[in-house]
TrEMBL record:
Superkingdom as given in the UniProt entry: Bacteria
Transmembrane intervals: 44-62, 68-94, 147-164
UniProt-recorded name of the protein: CGLD27 family protein
Organism classification: Bacteria, Bacillati, Cyanobacteriota, Cyanophyceae, Oscillatoriophycideae
Key words, A-Z: Membrane, Transmembrane, Transmembrane helix
Short name of any one Pfam family annotated for the protein: CGLD27-like
PANTHER family: PROTEIN CONSERVED IN THE GREEN LINEAGE AND DIATOMS 27, CHLOROPLASTIC, PTHR34214
InterPro entries on file: CGLD27-like
Species name: Floridaenema evergladense BLCC-F167
Transmembrane helix recorded as keyword: yes
Length: 165
């Protein structure tokens, strides 16, 4: 007797478990799965390289030799925007996979946009997918939320410092 997983009509690349694995193995999205130190280094890497754009923009408004504090705060805020863009991209990718894993019905396309189908997951697939969400995907989304919160806190502190400069 065949298991219901093996008769899944959803194309391989559209199966939620394979979408999850592809995201987990991808160069960019896998950053969110790294240990704390490696993840922090990747975020710092984005922030540091963002200064290639942020530095000249901040210097045009606040020359470093005249207003070093404003230059640093403005440049740091602009560089942080690049981090926000990267984090939003990561967050949206992981939310998409979470939603596909969580839903009991999978929408898929057999050959193009015009022939969408739905497949109801059997109970064992629903259970497996929800376990993956609970123990693998949710911690990633929590980490990203904490990073967003930390960036918001840093931005607020920077605004407060700006007020006193």
């Amino acid at each position: 007797m065949e298991s219901s997983v093996s008769v899944c009509p959803v194309p391989f690349e559209q199966q939620p478990i394979n979408e999850y694995q592809e995201l987990k193995d991808s160069w960019f999205f896998s950053w969110a799965t790294l240990d704390g130190g490696s993840y922090s280094r990747k975020m710092a890497w984005i922030w540091g390289w963002s200064w290639l754009v942020a530095g000249p923009v901040a210097a045009a408004s606040f020359p470093p030799q005249k207003a070093l504090g404003q230059f640093m705060l403005c440049g740091g805020a602009i560089a942080s925007l690049f981090m926000v863009f990267a984090l939003v991209q990561m967050y949206l990718g992981w939310c998409y996979v979470r939603d596909r894993l969580t839903k009991p019905i999978v929408f898929y396309e057999e050959s193009g946009w015009y022939d969408g189908q739905c497949w109801s997951k059997p109970p064992e697939v629903i259970t497996r997918d929800r376990l993956i969400v609970t123990y693998q995907v949710q911690p990633i989304l929590q980490r990203l939320n904490k990073t967003f919160a930390l960036l918001a806190l840093i931005f607020c502190l920077g605004s407060l410092i700006w007020f006193f400069l």
